[in-house]
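haha ok so turns out i had the wrong file open the whole time. this is the CORRECT one, sorry everyone. sequence first:
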Amino acid sequence: MEEPYNKELLNIGQKILKILEELSKFLIIELKCARLLLKESGQKNLRINRNNKRFIYLISPKYIKNNDFYSKLKQVLSSNKVNFFQLRLKKEKRKKKIIIAKKIKKICKKYKVKFLVNDDPIFAKKINADGCHLGQKDMNILKARKILKNKIIGITCHNSINLAKKAIFDGANYLAFGAFYSSKTKKARYKARLRVLSLAKEITNTPVVAIGGIKDTNYKKLLLNKANFLAISDYIWNNKKLNPREAVNKLV
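then structure:
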């Protein structure tokens, strides 16, 4: 009686199976290595941002009502974690705004923090601020550049790489993306995804600022995704559990 199988073919099949089993081991190892490399890459990026300890882009509260604010500001800036301070007082009268701006500018200078003004290049020039932040509906950056010359001008780009490309072409000093999380400071009309940060870094070396609802429980994700600076306001000024100094000290 003939054997129901061919021994030669069986041997070949077993050898092929053994080779495939060995290959699968290598594929699993390579996959694990790839995952570890991705994780290490993210951690390396976080370390880079941590080495730049001044990663906070601090935004003022909506209202500055008393002198207590200035002592709190000094405490926050003395942490040596703040790189920029943006004055954002949309409803304040101009005369009072100038008085407030001069006081803050003096404090910022002491702690070597860049003092920026929101929305208004003309006001920024008047008080000799270090620069201005512009939204998409504010003055055109080219016109603002004529007013502010070589001062810092940052542009809001929401969640758009196209807006970022235009801002880069027009000579923006930094690109601001957001909102990444919900915020009490400003109602977010645009929701940004974390991916936009790494996409921006692929096309430019222009610093990237992340905006929107940033606090101690979510800020690391933004640093891991290559944000250079984190725009923070409500977490510092309106924190129900921590005073401003305690709040900033939790961002390490």
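Residues 1-51 form one domain.
again sry for the mixup
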